[in-house]
């Protein structure tokens, strides 16, 4: 009886949702935790979560604001939006005011609401972050994946973007550009951004520039494309990555003033759905966006650690003939195992999914297949999130003991040993093929 009821309702599931499962990033995390609970050793390189603690002064601000209990304005707390406007100017030279900013419970939600309210096809390079395309599908939007090449570090080429738009120049379109990139760690030069901006302007594209990893550019050199295409760029960011606060759920959109109509439409949906972002979190976030020396120091050392570990990991993979772009920001690597294709095929491993399953089963190293990011299943690419280390301890060591010393292999062996074990496990697995 119960079974019949379930199947009767199942057919009423919205077609846009039917067949979709939980997001790959969250699934791999839950799966890894289940295995750990069963007593297995898992090297958690699946979920892309910052290993660093929320800066102490921001935690302190949250403690002070635990009593904040009122619903806040749909667009977000004014004081916070003012702090973000100043922050945008300080870091990126972007001229904006509090009125141009919208706060949401994670930038993921804001990106989804934009896709819901704006009737345009979604254009994204392959590979792209796992959630853009399912969100488009849920909202009933068409997705146009732009091919890229490994030689150009999987980046979106202005020429290819132009080619896609040329066939139907007036079609409404949303392009999501994400850099430093999840999943590749690559970023764009100013010259490249200027060319992309030119194409975006030519076709009146609504450009979401997902800059959530901007403050984790390893050299602190991030440049926003909003400088070159201010009238059509919405800058997406938040606290999750650079402030280590993914679970706090606070994301930000910065709109150009001529897209006020879009901002208002998003606020309508927000007001009928999440209402406003958690009040204590918004009050605490004001401190995160202010100019504090502690936060600048925290960022400086977070970048040093991520740069050194990312480069080291990439070099160890290369020593095994695996190709991988050098990460320039964030905490991801996007290796290509295709040099092992024949050996893997002999073991029945033909897809990136099967590759990740086999490595997890045999070594305990968990990471995600390239096909989750829009690559063809039989391409042997994968995303590694090099975040399985004790962020607080490593940060303290970099700030004190290693303040003026380079973060060499000796440092990584001492403080990021779990990642180094994971590398060794992968190497042994490849050697045994
Ligand atoms: N964009 C990218 C590229 C991401 O990796 C993430 C992951 N958290 C998000 C957006 C969403 O972040 P949040 O919702 O935590 O702001
Ligand atoms: N963005 C993170 C990742 O790519 C995880 C968080 C999420 O997907 O919401 O792994």
Q: How are the elements arranged and paired?
A:
Layout: H1 2-10, H2 24-37, E1 43-44, H3 56-64, H4 78-92, E2 101-104, H5 107-117, E3 121-125, H6 132-139, E4 143-146, H7 158-166, E5 173-178, H8 190-202, E6 206-210, E7 233-238, E8 251-254, H9 260-272, H10 279-289, H11 293-319, E9 332-333, H12 341-346, H13 352-363, E10 365-366, E11 368-369, E12 382-385, H14 391-399, H15 409-415, H16 417-431
Parallel strand pairs: 1-10, 3-4, 3-5, 5-6, 6-7
Antiparallel strand pairs: 2-8, 7-8, 9-12, 11-12
Structural descriptors:
16 helices; 433 residues; binds glutamic acid; Aspartate Aminotransferase, domain 2; alpha/beta; 2 domains; 3-stranded antiparallel sheet; binds 4'-deoxy-4'-aminopyridoxal-5'-phosphate
Overall number of structural domains = 2
The CATH class of the largest domain: Alpha Beta
Q: How many alpha or pi helices? A: 16
Morphology call: globular
Largest sheet: 7 strands, mixed
Order of helices and strands: HHEHHEHEHEHEHEEEHHHEHHEEEHHH
The portion of residues assigned to helices is 40-55%
Bound molecules: 4'-deoxy-4'-aminopyridoxal-5'-phosphate, glutamic acid
Radius of gyration, CA atoms, in whole angstroms: 22 Å
Regions with little confidence, pLDDT below 50 for 5+ residues: none
CATH homologous superfamily assignment of the largest domain:
Type I PLP-dependent aspartate aminotransferase-like (Major domain)
Q: Which whole number gives the mean pLDDT?
A: 96
